[in-house]
Amino acid sequence: MKIQAGTILVAEPFMLDPNFKRSVVLLCEHHDQGTTGFILNKPLEMQIQELVPDFPESKASVHIGGPVGMDSLHFLHNVGDMLDQSQEVCPGVYWGGDFEKLRFLMENGVIRDNNVKFFVGYSGWSEGQLEEELKEGSWLTEEMDANYLFKVKPFVMWQTVLHNKGNIYSVIAQMPDAVSLN
To answer: Is the pTM of this model over 0.85?
Structure first.
């Protein structure tokens, strides 16, 4: 599969890196200088108002996007036509856009909590790094489906993506997190 925006990376089941263990990462940007994405299934136990105190009341989920730039806030959404400067990542999923307009539209109920996910930090790879990790077998690739982000619960996303991939991956999806329980 060609690596590009809209590709998801699924951590192989024995990945030990605690940042990416059993993670599903949506790639939002891929070019010669490197790759940027967000971990979709690592929610934080916090509200957006804890990060942006004057943000309107919202129960939109906040996730760890990755280990890079942990002092940055990003968002993915499905309302790209409403937010100027949004970047379409794949059908039904947009990255960023006019944050002040997002705030205004959420405050007025035009954009709802289930239309947006917030991410603290991001996942990044330098030139050639991701390709090397793919050759080593650290990641499986799959096309993104907006339902993964907006409909699937984070705690079952890794298993869901593998199950949907079919064949042997359906079996791998059933492996317990602690291999000693297998």
So the answer is: yes
